[in-house]
Amino acid sequence: MHVLKLAFANIRKTPSAALSLALLILISTLLLNIGLTVLFSLQVFYEQKVEELQEAHAGILMRQEEYQPEQLEYLSNYPGAVKALQESVLLLQSARFQYSGSELSSALMVVNAGAEREFPNPKFSERLESLSDEDIYLPYRFKVGGGYKLGDTFTLKLSDQAYSFRIAGFYESALLGNIDMGMIKFMLPERGYHELENELGEQAEATFLSVRLENSDDAPGLIADYSRQFGLDAYFGAGFFWTGDVVTVKSANTMTVNIVAMILIAFAAIIVAVSLIVIHFRIINSIDDGMVNIGILKSLGYTSREIRGSMILQFTGIAAFSGVIGLLLSYLAMPVFGGIISSLAGLLWTTKLEVPLNLASLLLILLTVLAVTRWSSRRIHKLQPVEALRGGMAAHSFRKNCFPLDQSGGSVIWMLAGKTMLGNLKQNILISLIIAAVTFASVFAVMLYYNIGSDRTAFIHLVGSETADVVVITQPGTDSRVFMEEVQAMDGVAKLTIQDILNTEVEGRRYYTQVTEDFSRLDNDTFYKGRYPKYANEIGISGAISKEIGKGIGDQVTVNVQGRSETYLITGLSQSINFLGLLVSMTTEGMEQLAPDYESSVFNVYLDHEDTKGFIAKLQGQMGNRLQSVTDLEEVFNSQSSIYTAALFSVMLLILSITAIVVILILYLVIKTMILKRRRELGIFKAIGFTTLQLMNQIALSFVPVVAAGIVLGGFMGYLLTNPLLAFLLSGVGIFNVHFSLPLSGILLLGAGMIALSYIVSVLVSYRIKHISTYELITE
Amino acid sequence: MGQPILRTEKLCKSFSSSGEQQHVLKNLDLAIGKGDFTVIMGSSGSGKSTLLYTLSGMDKPTMGDIYFGDRYLSGLSNDQLAIFRRQYCGFVFQQIHLLDHMSVLDNVLAGGLLVSKDKKALTAEAKRLLTQVGLEASSWGKFPSQMSGGEAQRAAIARALINRPQIVFADEPTGALNSATSTQVLDVLTEVHNSGQSLIMVTHDLKSALRGNRVLYLRDGVICGDLRLNHYGEEEPSIRNEKLLAFLSGMGW
């Protein structure tokens, strides 16, 4: 009990220091808990959702005429398959609609909401009570990312026809609810469905095969085996096949959230480190300041264990209390992150009580606080009562008189600031390291946002997208050579390249393969090692494939298409965020060796003017019947990346705010302790004629080099290490080389802002010097 | 008495303690002569240190006026008082109060650099003063914790003199020293006084008090005795001793 009293007495002595420490622990527990919860829950989130929604683990969509009953039979008999279903749907290969303020073009699958089916059963996150024939049900992502709400009018454009619907509900779908998987599922009520079916006719009739497996992880394997079995090696634009599985969707959608979660955990670790350093110095100082009191307590019969126990209780008590509040607050903050996850995944995230993770977060922090408190207070154990009563041993070991006033240049305030700075070197090095860590995190976050949200050049380069203005897909049977010549001759066309995506089998594994006539004509060279293929016998593979098949530059690989094999030389390694980073690159000549009847049908058009819409209208007017789809690439990019931009902007703001809080808190705690400790010294300075402002400046200036050193170090690390760190974080999705950049002015601005903030905070905190009276010198 | 360098009119200083006002200095009218070595004596709690620090601008009076020459001190702000102190005053404390993390030379220069920008001349002056108070060049680079009490106090006297103050305030400068080092310190102060420097010293030590040429006796915040003596060394020590003892005895010391 007396130990508890001592602990409370210690807290009461410096309540504001206890409060600020509590705030640090609170923030770190909050971030750690959110980070851990998101990171771990996300792993099971998709599986739980798929179970909850009773969705298919894999789906295959094809034109009605391409469906054969053997396909369903194959899927039904596939090892591990629980159930396979066939459903008639409508396929809109190139539909346009508004999404988040931009017109988006995508392939759509329209299903009959009224049809009886075993699975998937739509689960509505919200739905209108009254129904009408003009209703449409959209994926939940259209609500959280697309800017739609119930009752809104949704217009679908097919060629020059427009169809308007009333949004009657939003439903969740793990497999077909996303805008960036190449296929989106819409649902219409029975009557509306049949009306559209009649209007569009046979050309829209399609079949959707869906499979549920015992283990959802087997879904990509099933798709690969199915494709091999039914020869889907042909270019998918010619005979339409779309395949998808929940594993692929999950990895594509969780990447950003995983990075955000890891940033939060890293930041929590930094703040925990700050808290531990603060605790360490507070214990050291309180032993120094309370030496006589320790002597008195020891002479009264308190054991070292009891005195140390009071300190341990004091700090672990603060940590436990604020940690629990941090945990509770994390549940208030979770909906914000849940919102980000929902908007990225198109699935409703509900915050659940995660007791084991909560306990792990709290325990982790408590144990580190306990360990540091025990370690820092070990000196008490060795102190003899008499020694403590005499104020302890003189702990001064000045090895050097830093900044000797008779020899150093500059004003006396600067020189004294230098002395103060070097006099607390150990502490200041730690402060510098903390500032370096938060600066690094800030540069990382700002760089991430700048390159994804603001100047996207490096991001586009990173994801492997080509910066064309328009992507055109031609109808099967179109003579590509004639088409290219005609488009090239159109006004405003600066360049035209082929950008086909086909399925090939490389070393027995199926991969998407991009084919173009000349890689040097592409704007975005995605090869980070070696070079792109130039000749018919050359091939490029992505880093992820290189890892999978264990082959690199200079090796030969066997490529198989429709039973025909050829050997190619690997000339370079590329990267792309698409297709999970698994992408093969070949020249058209190279592909023609495997498929002599291969005809290019996807083209990138680069314009030399801004009027993309005008060009698209002209192209459609001129080539109407030869076009399957025309996409304004920038609009697609804008609408798809807006949600990432918003998420990264939130993370950047969060990190910058926490950086500011960390800088403020650490300077507050350190300067306050310093002033308490140097009370007598500051009194002497005042006595010999220093003004309060001069002393405030002296203290503030003594921290400027410390903070500046941390900022320079952190900024430098951020500048140098952000790209390798991102490459490491993104290696799972096939990115091995990142070239994000931040204008030097941006880093300088950030650094200058942090130095200004730390100077202002230092001056404000040291204002308490005003209350130190020289009179205290005679009351000793 | 020379021209007054410091004078007070109806000087009062009170402290509030547990809601009660404690009047430490009561309506003091006092003039301190230029070039005098004024000693303030009195029993514990009589207000002598309070008087010293109020006169020096380290603390503000509750009521009344203080004039330093023609300058009116009572109305100055804390920062104005700090600037006043650096320009006109030097201080020697009982607890010495050198800055622990600075060398002896830096301790002397720290106050000096506030007034003079001529670092070279100032350093020369600091070294001259340190030599004057008997500190060898070998000790100028030492830290206070590496010096004896007497050496540290002599360094503190050098610090007090660096800005050529018009007056030096000393609060029990030998209070924390042994007899031998006390004498060394008092000799330095006497030498300083003999060079024309004005000094005010608070002490309850008879040996220290003998160095002054004026002794004020304070009781309950009121000056109740004022003894004038010749400069130290100008008369027989025994006669001086006798005069002082008689004065103090009359004060009930």
UniProtKB/TrEMBL annotation, chain A:
UniProt keyword annotations, A-Z: Cell membrane, Membrane, Transmembrane, Transmembrane helix
Entry keyword annotation includes rRNA-binding: no
Cellular localization per UniProt: Cell membrane
Domain ABC3 transporter permease C-terminal: 266-379, 654-773
Positions of transmembrane segments: 21-46, 259-281, 318-349, 355-373, 429-450, 643-671, 699-722, 742-765
Membrane topology: Multi-pass membrane protein
Coiled-coil ranges per UniProt: none
Domain of life: Bacteria
Statement: the UniProt record of this protein carries the keyword Cell membrane: yes
Principal location: membrane
Protein name (database record): FtsX-like permease family protein
Source species of the chain: Paenibacillus brevis
From TrEMBL, chain B:
Transmembrane segments: none
Top-level taxonomic group: Bacteria
Assigned keywords, A-Z: ATP-binding, Nucleotide-binding, Transport
GO terms of molecular function: ATP binding
Pfam families: ABC_tran
Tagged with keyword Nucleotide-binding: yes
Keyword S-adenosyl-L-methionine among record annotations: no
PROSITE patterns registered for this protein in UniProt: ABC_TRANSPORTER_1 (PS00211), ABC_TRANSPORTER_2 (PS50893)
Ranges where the ABC transporter domain occurs: 6-245
Family designation: Belongs to the ABC transporter superfamily.
PANTHER family given in the database record: ALPHA-D-RIBOSE 1-METHYLPHOSPHONATE 5-TRIPHOSPHATE SYNTHASE SUBUNIT PHNL, LIPOPROTEIN-RELEASING SYSTEM ATP-BINDING PROTEIN LOLD
Protein name as catalogued: ABC transporter ATP-binding protein
